[in-house]
Amino acid sequence: MLVVRRFAAGAVIFVLAVGLTVLASVRFSSQFEPAAESAPVSGAGMDRVTGRSIARLQEHLRAQPKDAAGWAGLGLAYVEQARVTADPSYYPKASAAFDRSLRVSPTDNEPALSGQGALAAARHDFTAALRLADRALKINPYGTRAHAVRVDALVELGRYEEADQAVRHADKIKPALPIFTRYAYVMELRGRPGEAQRVLRLAATSATDPADVSYVHTQLGELAWNRGDLTTAEREYAAALRADPNWLPAIDGRARVRAAKGDAAAAIRDRQALVARAPLPSYVVALGELYEARGMQAQAREQYGVAAAWATLARSNGVPTDFEGAITAADHGDRAAALHAARTEWGRRKSIHVADALAWALHVNGRDKEALGYARQAARTGYRNATFLYHLGVIEKSLGHKAAARRDLKAALALNPHFSDLHAPQARKALKELQ
Amino acid sequence: MKRLGASLTLLAGLLLITLAQPTSASTTEASQAAPATSAFGNVPGAATLPQHPLGNFSVNRYDGLVVAPGELRVDHVQDLAEIPTAQAGPLLNADRQGWAAERCAEAARSMAGTAAQRPLTFTVRSSVVRTVPGQAGLPTARLECALVASAAEGPITFRDTGGAATVGWREITARGDRMTLTSSDVPTTSRSARLTAYPSDLLSSPLSQWTANLRVRAGGPALGPAETPVTEILPRGADKPARAFADLVANERLTLGFAVTALLIAIALGALHALAPGHGKTIMAAYAVSQGRRARRNILTLGITVTLTHTAGVLALGLIVLSGTVLAPGLVFGGLGAASGLLVAVAGTLMLRRAIRTFKTGTQTHTHAFGHAHAHPHGHGHGHTHSHQPRQRSTPESVQDSARPHLSHTSTSTLIRPAALNGAPSTGLDRRDPDGPEHTGPTEETHDASERSRGAALMGFAGGMVPSPSAVLVLIGAAAIGRAWFGVVLVLAYGVGLALTLILVGLFVMGTGRALASRLSDSSARPRLLRRVSARALPVATSLAVVLLGLGLMLRSLPTAFG
């Protein structure tokens, strides 16, 4: 009897403790049913074409997760999406898709390798891009993408001789549009803009895809712009925008032409649209300079503030998201940081663009003697660029090389009198001081 | 034999409770983790800071449509990544509210739609912006607008054309409030938890929902209180009644009657909160301090500590929320859960140390005729034991006899108090035994007493540490309508309710324990050795169980904290 009662008392307490907890748990967890997963829809802010192909591939891979080529294709679509929207957040996705492809098919997976090469190039890791392209070409010597990646990597690494050979070789064994545009770029960098223009015109006639058409016409616009031919540049940018009204580099070009022609309001409108759509450092700085050239200091400072935010992000990521843009910030942002970034980049690759950026970063830090060597390096291939010449001229002027400074500043303005909203007037001023 | 049977039963009960507690704790954590998963994304890793699926320069937009009789409400949210926030920077910093109002007005203008073929015109009811730290310490901005348009009953079309050029996630959901959606081409729940968590798996692309087409009919359940901004940082532990209450506080006019009612409700909710999963440990703490002569004082200490800790925790969290800082809820609640577990483990370790010390002492002093210390491991603290005491002292044999009721008592109390601070109560007897020939010194007494209330305080601290989400909700709800002080009062009432439950449980257990003990003391003549060993081993076992429980709670919370 006693045992029974004792047991009953213990049981009451036990039931109380456990029962309350269990009851409460059940009661609470019943409210936390996860929301039903809704079907994913594709495409925010996406290029419509790639957006569709991405959606198709995603659907396909959900059904066929063993399709290595499908995964590589999805990775490439992500890389392309990043290029079109200027949005780097697709890169990790692309990388994971390529990894998945290589897991499914670890050997002789050329699409995944060349895709990884394209991704590495997009992330400015040109050494890796070159290595991956070479591996892909060993599997398939006719891969257009691998050839294109290889040429891009060699150009950005400053190995112009090899790039020249590579692009001619690619053109011989597998002529294709991506090779033509690269051929033209190599020609331009090697100081043969006429040849570049000829190739691009050929490419323009063979391009059918709107994205390709706008790309080629934008390149033609750049060529014309670089030699100060506003009329041709305007026409080419317009052609590019007809094919794809959202192609950002063409809007950027059009804004430059409009500013050069004195239509500041339209230029500012274009640039505002550009930074609303993709506030990349170079676009932000360009708008800032446009404001500054018009005496709108407060608005200019806002834009430089955004550029500073980019610089902070780039520093925290360890990788410059837009190297040229970060360097442009040398004029408006942290000079020491710009010099550091340029030196680091020069340690990685010795292209003429990096040489020019390093020269200018040294100049703004007051180290003109050192800068002069790099500014001359930037001219080593015969590439003629008004900004490069302006940088060289200013450095020479600071060092007291009056004749050389006069010559190079004159050449810059002769090549393209509108090369920069902010710096072209300063080039004129410097030239006046020298006379 | 009967005694042995009872001991075994009690031991089994103890084990069951000890085992059941971690299980219930795991259910607790699971139920807290589950909402975190649903509210903070379908993706592992999304529980940290909002990640912008479309990079550092995306502006993500969400429109939560609610069709109510006569009106269409839009819960419009914009999540600006680092660069758009920097672009908005100067204006945003100069006049935050003005910026939010302007931006919401712009959002209202960019919306178009029809209800029963008549065009909708949206107006801004409220607008708020807060900044949230993003990558590299740069701020990101979260804009929330409550928009409304009067709408005739009939089919509804909706289109948000705002920010068409910008890159970003675009999402629309639709629900009915006292109306029923008979057809809808958008989901009812947000995939991104209102732009707080974006799926990032390989096979999903950002949502791009620009339009919604709805068919509605009158009638249907009323929609629960609108999701307020702050609900995002809270785990969905704030259940329906608590939400309803928060809503009530935010909407009702503050009269004396309402204030009293609200206070009572707050106390009741607090009391319920103590019974909710996660407070098994607190209940145990209540058991623990229900021992000893100073039981009432210890229970009081526990109650006050729980109330104060809980109130302080809720106020701190409320301040964090109101300051616009958004912490990962996993970090807050997981971290506090882990700390609470740690405290329980520490308390357990202290108990274990004492239990082992007592165990050893007991073995040594056993040979002494006057085995006074011998009696110590046995749980005392109940009035009846004193009556035995003076008598026992007379002969060594009677001391041995006195162990009987103590033994059974220990076992009983161990059953009902697995988290007991076992060592402490025995010395309490010493202190209060004026005739004891081997009286312990006053220094030790004070030490023991303070150690005991320290144990109660520690347990109370652990118990009150994890703030009740509903209390935070009420506090913020009150603050949002300029009645922060009332919110604080209500939070205090929550703590009181919490303490009330624990104290009641403690008192109940104390009473039950006494009743049991007095019953057990009636029986006699059990095998001595078994009694003695089990009497000393049980405290060790229980304190060990508490240590393990604390560690378990801690380990369970850690993934939530860093996951």
TrEMBL record, chain B:
<keyword id="KW-1133">Transmembrane helix</keyword>
<keyword id="KW-0472">Membrane</keyword>
<keyword id="KW-0732">Signal</keyword>
<keyword id="KW-0171">Cobalt transport</keyword>
<feature type="compositionally biased region" description="Basic residues">
    <location>
        <begin position="370"/>
        <end position="391"/>
    </location>
</feature>
<feature type="transmembrane region" description="Helical">
    <location>
        <begin position="484"/>
        <end position="512"/>
    </location>
</feature>
<feature type="compositionally biased region" description="Polar residues">
    <location>
        <begin position="392"/>
        <end position="401"/>
    </location>
</feature>
<keyword id="KW-0406">Ion transport</keyword>
<keyword id="KW-0812">Transmembrane</keyword>
<comment type="function">
    <text>Efflux system for nickel and cobalt.</text>
</comment>
<feature type="compositionally biased region" description="Basic and acidic residues">
    <location>
        <begin position="429"/>
        <end position="453"/>
    </location>
</feature>
<dbReference type="GO" id="GO:0005886">
    <property type="term" value="C:plasma membrane"/>
</dbReference>
<feature type="transmembrane region" description="Helical">
    <location>
        <begin position="456"/>
        <end position="478"/>
    </location>
</feature>
<feature type="transmembrane region" description="Helical">
    <location>
        <begin position="256"/>
        <end position="278"/>
    </location>
</feature>
<dbReference type="InterPro" id="IPR051224">
    <property type="entry name" value="NiCoT_RcnA"/>
</dbReference>
<dbReference type="GO" id="GO:0006824">
    <property type="term" value="P:cobalt ion transport"/>
</dbReference>
<feature type="transmembrane region" description="Helical">
    <location>
        <begin position="328"/>
        <end position="352"/>
    </location>
</feature>
<dbReference type="GO" id="GO:0010045">
    <property type="term" value="P:response to nickel cation"/>
</dbReference>
<dbReference type="GO" id="GO:0046583">
    <property type="term" value="F:monoatomic cation efflux transmembrane transporter activity"/>
</dbReference>
<feature type="signal peptide">
    <location>
        <begin position="1"/>
        <end position="25"/>
    </location>
</feature>
<feature type="transmembrane region" description="Helical">
    <location>
        <begin position="299"/>
        <end position="322"/>
    </location>
</feature>
<dbReference type="Pfam" id="PF03824">
    <property type="entry name" value="NicO"/>
</dbReference>
<feature type="transmembrane region" description="Helical">
    <location>
        <begin position="533"/>
        <end position="555"/>
    </location>
</feature>
<keyword id="KW-0921">Nickel transport</keyword>
<keyword id="KW-0533">Nickel</keyword>
<keyword id="KW-0813">Transport</keyword>
<feature type="region of interest" description="Disordered">
    <location>
        <begin position="370"/>
        <end position="453"/>
    </location>
</feature>
<dbReference type="InterPro" id="IPR011541">
    <property type="entry name" value="Ni/Co_transpt_high_affinity"/>
</dbReference>
<keyword id="KW-1003">Cell membrane</keyword>
<dbReference type="GO" id="GO:0015099">
    <property type="term" value="F:nickel cation transmembrane transporter activity"/>
</dbReference>
<dbReference type="GO" id="GO:0032025">
    <property type="term" value="P:response to cobalt ion"/>
</dbReference>
<protein>
    <submittedName>
        <fullName>Nickel transporter</fullName>
    </submittedName>
</protein>
<keyword id="KW-0170">Cobalt</keyword>
